[in-house]
Write the structure tokens for this entry.
Amino acid sequence: MTRTVLAASLALFMALPASAASANEASDKVIANAIDGFIRPAYRQMVEISGEMGEAMDQLCAAPSTEHLEAAREAFAKTTRAWSEVEIIRFGPITEHNRLERMLFWPDRKGTGLKQVQAAIADEDATATDATKLAEKSVAMQGLGALEFVLFGAGADELADASATYRCAYGKAISGNIGIIAAEVDAAWHSDKGFAEQWKHPGSQNPLYRNATEAVTELLEVYVNGLELVRDVRVNGFLGKEAASDKPKQALYWRSKDTAASLAGNIAGMKALFDASHFGSLLPADSEWIAQSIDFEFANALNTANAITGPIDVALADADKRGKLSYFGVVTSSLSELFGTRLAGALGLTAGFSSLDGD
């Protein structure tokens, strides 16, 4: 994935403590906080929760029942929420070996991935029931989108009895693959000589981050790109300018009714990262209001997303909930302005092209 380009000026260090050494120390601390306070714990949680999903799929396949199917569906919901919180980190180990796309292939505008998943189930492709072999197949067949169809798509209720043996085996392999990806990324972030150390310690010999400015810029990108992803790709992908132009089946996780929960997870992840990193501590005293405004708008966005419950098509048909979705867009636009213009300006950063441009 192409990294966002953010051109940073030397004014960043005018906004930080007076000496270059103290400026570097302050920014290094913020990056260390981001890694140790949010990224590592979030991925460790992803490993644990995806493991629980794997166990639920094991039980469902071993003893099909309505109870076990419901447990598997609940485990899927927990996993998508955990992923939604950490998927805002769209750089580093997750970008290696197509892991990001393998974890969640979306949007699938032409339905190519859906057709591949449906074909695997219809043809009972034996190679798709092995997590190792599945990892070598199309990215669209491996991740959360594929598992959602298995658990919630047409014919999914048959998983409650013994008539869907293959479908369950395929879902079990997907779940195992998701767990493997999560474990690989978790291990990479915890490596003493891996990506985390490069981000923590920029320098002239560092191939990724030559100075503290570039390291802090990477953190800013999380918000610039993350908010654009949530608003422009996720929400605007299904919310029309008028109700008549809404496209609920273009929403992520519409089958599992987890669309709004995933949006709330994205915002919760960004807020948790902002709080854990103490990003606002880099602001000069006369710009501290920016961090306070960011906190206020994160709360607004999170409360709004949590208030949009139920299937997304039902929410869109409800004038009040549809209005909340529109307001969610307004709040995320406000956050984009606070990060991309206000905070970036106070730190002497200039936002460039987004990595999502052209999607």
About this structure: The longest strand covers residues 6-8.
